[in-house]
Amino acid sequence: MKELMVVSKVTTNGVGSGGIIIGAATSAASEASVTPPQDLRERVKDYGQDDVFALWDELSLEERDFLIRDIRSLDLARIDRIIRCSFRSQGVPTPEIEPVPETSVSKVEERTMDERARWWKMGLKAISEGRLAVLLLSGGQGTRLGSSDPKGCFSIGLPSGKSLFQLQAERILRIQRLAAQSNDDTFVPIHWYIMTSPFTDDATCKFFESHGYFGLDADQVTFFQQGTLPCVSKDGRFIMETPNKLARAPDGNGGVYSALKSSKLLEDMAKRGVRYIDCYGVDNALVRVADPTFLGYFIDKGVASAAKVVRKAYPQEKVGVFVRRGRGGPLAVLEYSEMDPSMTLEINQTTGRLRYCWSNVCLHMFTLDFLNQVAHGLEKDSIYHLAEKKIPSVHGHTMGWKLEQFIFDAFTYSPSTALFEVLREEEFAPVKNANGSTYDTPDSARLLVLRLHSRWVVAAGGFLTHSVPLYATGVEVSPLVSYTGENLEAICRGRTFHAPCEITY
Questions:
Q1: Which residues, including other chains, have CB under 8 Å from residue 409's CB and lie 6 or more apart?
Q2: pTM above 0.85?
Q3: Residue 161, C-beta contacts closer than 8 angstroms, at least 6 positions apart
Q4: CB-based burial label for 474 (10 Å; 0-12, 13-18, 19+)
Q5: Measuring CA to CA, which residue among 298, 262, 300 is closest to residue 279?
Q6: Is residue 450 within 8 Å of residue 473, measured between CB atoms?
Q7: Which pLDDT score, from 0 to 100, does residue 31 have?
Q8: Residue 238 gets which letter from DSSP?
């Protein structure tokens, strides 16, 4: 199901395929009567969903109006296809899983300085020519962090107090400057597409507006919403959250593909001359947004898709890993919950590493042509993951299914995928759980940032003092000053910084 997409600077009137009826000429108020509208009753009955009107007689006129609008907003044919295809896919034997071929991975220890410099230069050139767009997955709330705000609004407690959104925006600003310097000071803005959800869209837009888009031009940022889908029972029937309202849930971060398609943003990218898309999740405090090295590697390899990966920290780590599905088949991500415990312990006798060691950390690069292919392919196949959850319903919380697609579902459609190994301590500081949890907290992410930046400062000839143990603190380098530790010698050499502090111009 696709709801009407609301896009900052871009609006759409059509949603997905199948002809959703939204904003019908006849208002729901004039339709509400003793019985539900005849055409609507017939539509829901055709798809076996007539239970949505089971409590009609108990509803007020206003509640009936709301229910009619809620049902009319659905593309019932599309949703029925999704439910049938997703249920049918359960229990279907999957291709045999094989490890990722070593030749598919660019490993840190095998890369030369010359290669890195060449990829960096290639990436900056493409950026300076306007060929890269950045795509941010930001539909989640910070509930697990103890906040009702969008996760990107969250501050992990750095000396600057900057939010995740601000850190990422300033990295874009820095790369724009570096790209312009590499191309005779010709400035081309990087367009930033930010996917929100119905639960975070308004707050996200207001946060950017109130902070002046963190120095970016407002017209280089586009917000768009992912869709939602009805939650369903074990027999595929819609669950009613209240007598007059469907229980719905976001369609997963993989909903980005259909959202880009239905909001016509793939066409928008093409008009802007974009050829490559850097895609990432909001909850990584060390994400290198618009990384020229990764982009240059991607262009050099000539593949349709690529992903940054880190090696599993230990066999039982709860992360999805890249695998090959079937002999000679495509690369795909296998969730840790899908792995047999014995698989997690298997060792590659040649390398001495785990056979299944390449963790997916949601740092991806795609060509625009491939994004178009994925958007059409996923829509055609209509297979969603079924997540069993407790769903709020008129009968209290009941077990049911949420229907989701994941960002990594794209890889099974890719004719060619390359994996690019990065170091956790340099590029992966996840912010998922509240402080006090055992891992992926704001505190752990903050320490990863401060330790990395402290190493940059020392490497540039600076000195650090501190009033608490250095392992618990450090210095923060503003992204406006340095992207990966460059440009710091003139600022740091011979100077002493008292941690914690932020280094700016």
A1: 254, 378
A2: yes
A3: 155
A4: buried
A5: 298
A6: yes
A7: 59
A8: B
